[in-house]
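Issue: ligand-bound run for arginine - logging full I/O for the record.

Environment: standard queue, default settings, no custom constraints.

Inputs:
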Amino acid sequence: MNLTLEKQLCLKFENIFKNLGFDEKYAFVKPSDRPDLSDFQCNGALALSKILKQNPRAIGEKIAEQLQKDTDVESVSVDGPGFINIKLKNAFIAENMDAMAKDERLNCALTQTPKTVVMDFGGPNVAKALHVGHLRSAVIGESIRRILCFAGHKVISDVHFGDWGTPMGMILAQIIFEDGNLSKVETYDIEAISAIYKRANIRCKEDEKAAETARLMTAQLQNGNEEYIKAWKHLRAVSVSAVKQNYDELNANFDLWLGESDAHKMCGTIVEMAQKQGISEVDDGATIIRLPQTNKPMPPVILVKSDGGFGYQLTDIATIKMRVDDLKADEIIYVVDKRQSLHFEQVFEVAQMLGLAPKTELKHIGFGTVNGRDGKPFKTRDGGVMNLKDLIELSKDKVRASMPEAGEVEGYNAKEIEELVSQIAIGAIKFQDLKNPAQSGYVFELDDFAKFDGKTGPYIQYAIARINSILRKAAANKLLEGRVIISSEDERNLALKLASFESNVLRAAALKEPSIIADYAYTLAQLFSTFYNTCPIMSTEDKTTAQSRLKLARLVRDVLKTALKLLGIEAPEAMLKSKD
Ligand code: ARG
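Outputs:
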């Protein structure tokens, strides 16, 4: 395993700081804010000046003087109040590329402190088809899962199926209302169950008595009524297999298919613990916990509803205990709509009050909504919520329209073209989502998201395919990779961007923010395009130059592929030309 260029540079600084008697913790460098002037900068002199009460420029000069002697360094300057700007020798950058090109992990180190991370994302509900609102949790969650795995953590993903709340009682009650009993339940498929749930929703809203019956039946189900449990098992199984198909298509992977119902056995224990510790009270027939009103007022947490049913909050609290006790989670991450922030603040607060997860970090990554042009959550033309399946179809239609049909291109049959359409369409949807910071919502751009230019998934897939084709040509012409030689500005810029891959991955892992990888991949693809315009490969006469550029191109391809992998997006070997 080689140290990245940035880490090597940091080491050089650490040594100098040590020799000069300065605290090494300020010896870090970062890519320059002024790439026109320098490659990297170190702002340590400014921090040191405050501690040492000395002029930052003078400290900077002392450091610069030492660094100047380093043969890997082209030039050093101290600018402004004391920024140290460094430009590296081309040979040093080139060596780094050679090392990176040899390394399977592209110079990305594994974490020194691997953790067991439980990731809770997806969060589908029984009887409800996945809709646009479920997209972000699956897409962002899966990308974070891959980033953390790549960094070397043990990640356990759990879909946390919504299979135990009031909707269950509503569906059962609706079936009995319509059929007289539950005997036909096992004949119902997912469409039928979803339709029943929709009708149940309407009826319960209009008729308080129906709602009351549904609540009662939920409580009876939770208390183990055998007939209800049997029917519920079918509803759950049918729903699980339907959402599994959706998640497979989105390439979202779950290690565990547990649900709210699996926490049921632990719910009673939690209620007992709260009672024993004297932190719960009975209010209007419900068992609740009042929270300390320290930072901001928080409503009480309802553990047991007045009808005896367990609520959403208790389920999540009980699940924390199971994830800590059974899965030994060091960290639990929830990738859930940010409109549920209060819910998680309450749940985490109670977990702390009960001492359920003293050494486990609990984190809610709240994401914004997918919006339409009007800035409100994305709707279909008739004003309904768009099904995920329909969204995927829509994206496929867009992509298909710009693709040749079977028979028009050699070597591709209809099935292979359809496979490609799917990879590009899903890539387009995912990238449009992941290029935005998770926190913010975004407008789903129906016109631009699947284009091959601009900041899109297909643009990056296309860049990879283009390099693949260069590599195939090189192989056919027996051109081999050679040592990297950097002699132009475009080669230099490309190499420096490649060299910063690890630090981008590390930042994405630390902040749990896939958009960092998406930004990086887009910039790298753009830089490659600039490089390839001025630095041809096959038509270059000088063999060593051609061999060096070939290696750089292959390295860009590998890094882009890895970046897409971290985003959960496929990289087709080749892309087909559009008809226009
Ligand atoms: N099923 C829930 C919903 O549709 C989301 C679940 C999120 N995860 C959790 N542990 N609460 O709102």
